[in-house]
Amino acid sequence: MIRSAAAVAVAPSVLRGERALAAPLPAASVTLGDETFLNDAWRDLAGRGVGVVTNQTGVTSRLETIVDAIRRNPQIALKAIYSPEHGLRGDQSAGAYVKSYVDERTGLPVYSLYGTTRHPTGAMLDGVDVVLYDIQDVGDRAYTYVSTLAYVMQAAKTYGKAVWVLDRPNPIGGAIVEGPVLDLRFASFIGLYAIPVRHGMTVGELAKLFNDHFSIGCDLRVVPMRGYTRDMLWPDTGLQWVQTSPNIPEWSTTLVYPATGLITGAGVNNGTDYTKPFKYAGAYRLDGARLAETLNERALPGISFRAAAWSPIAGYWAGKTLTGVELIVTDPRAYRAVRTAVEILVAVRKISPGTISIPSATGLDKDWGTDTLRKGLTDGLDANEILARWVPATKNFETLRERFLLYT
């Protein structure tokens, strides 16, 4: 009867041929950098040719893509699109080769910055005077979108182009900074500059830091947000979350990513290739109940652990039942992600020493940007001793970053 009544209720509008409209999105508390650009700053282009570095996350608060929004303005000459890891639509898996192609809908070239090259070439920038950057970051040094930003800025310096960063929120907030700060001996595409794992900066602030302190020296402009404050977490912004990559489907995943994103190099699975990526930590035949008890006894701020089991549907562990813990963040502002990562690895070493496996020192050191984690684990240090080694550099970074912060 309920279904029948509903059908009758909607039938008149359907019969009249009226177009069904989606319910309006709730108003956001933050005006994004791309909206400021679209509303006003675009006039400063003065007819110069534009390219845009973007992906599926480059949307306004109304979820219109930056490419579509630019194309609605006939006075902006959009020449090219550039896509990072995971591709323009975010459908490619981590580390997968991304091809360049011509977009059928717009007729624009889509140049891959995760294919044959990671730096835009002179040919890719032909006809482009200003490169816009509009991609949502997750607030973790190892996430490659900020490295793509740095490479774009380097290429812009080489070829005499300007870069405008259309700023976006840091989803895990700008109030907390956690080390280790990258040791440049381990610099790579997942960590180019001496910044901490959790830097607490927006992409616009990072761009200023890269450009001035790390001496890229390109013609840079940051188009800031309005209404954003450093203590905001993603839900405070009122914005809709768009999956940033296949394993970051929800904003809450960004909270645990700095905790579990880098533990696989030590032999601990993090739940990727399963239904809750980065929200698990465990291994084959690990005692999950004991691991949960050990971690909960540590009374870590803002997080609790429950024993869990999962079976990855792809990858090395596909079809195997893994056991360990699920991470449950209870207070995002009190929780410390990097400390949690170290506590997990030390606890696994304690209850199952054979689980901690470091097949490649180079790999783990590159992931963490330091060899002190690996040495601390192998030397039997506890979590507090490992973390203490990172405090001086992290404090120095906090002082350094003050010059580049745009928001209070």
Overall description:
Helix 4 crosses helix 5 (203-212), helix 7 crosses helix 9 (337-351) and helix 8 (288-297) packs across helix 9. 30% of the residues lie in helices and 15% in strands. It has a seven-stranded mixed beta sheet, sandwiched between helices. Strands 10-12-11 form a three-stranded antiparallel beta sheet. Strands 7-8 form a two-stranded antiparallel sheet. The protein starts with a helix and ends in a 7-residue tail after the last helix. A hairpin with a 6-residue loop joins strand 3 and strand 4. By secondary structure, it is of the alpha/beta class. It has two domains: 33-242, Uncharacterised protein PF07075, DUF1343 (Rossmann fold, 3-Layer(aba) Sandwich), CATH 3.40.50; 251-389, Aspartate Aminotransferase, domain 1 (Alpha-Beta Complex), CATH 3.90.1150.140. The protein has helices at residues 2-15, 33-39, 66-71, 145-159, 203-212, 234-237, 251-260, 288-297, 337-351, 361-368, 372-378, 383-388, 391-401; strands at 49-54, 77-83, 101-102, 109-112, 130-134, 162-166, 178-181, 196-198, 219-223, 280-284, 303-310, 322-329.
